[in-house]
Design brief:
Blueprint: E1 2-6, H1 12-21, E2 26-31, H2 34-46, E3 52-56
Parallel strand pairs: 1-2, 2-3
Length: about 70
């Protein structure tokens, strides 16, 4: 399962989604702020969570291909 946390901010919901998609799933943390994405990825690495991917999006492009997520 692939889940997108659009407007991930501090990553609160990103981490909640991670527990729902394990094992084998992926959570995409998507935010317009590269600082937020960097912090989410660092925090997840420190917690041993490897199934999260960070995407810095723009105002007009979410950064994901069509039909690439389930939720």
């Amino acid at each position: 399962m692939a889940v997108a946390d659009i407007g991930a901010g501090t990553g609160l919901f990103t981490r909640l989604f991670l527990s729902a998609v394990e094992p084998g799933g992926t959570v995409y943390a998507i935010d317009i702020s590269s600082t937020f994405i960097e912090n989410i990825l660092r925090s997840c690495r420190e917690q041993g969570l490897s199934n999260v991917k960070g995407i810095v999006n723009s105002q007009t492009d979410i950064g994901l291909p069509a039909n690439s997520i389930n939720l």
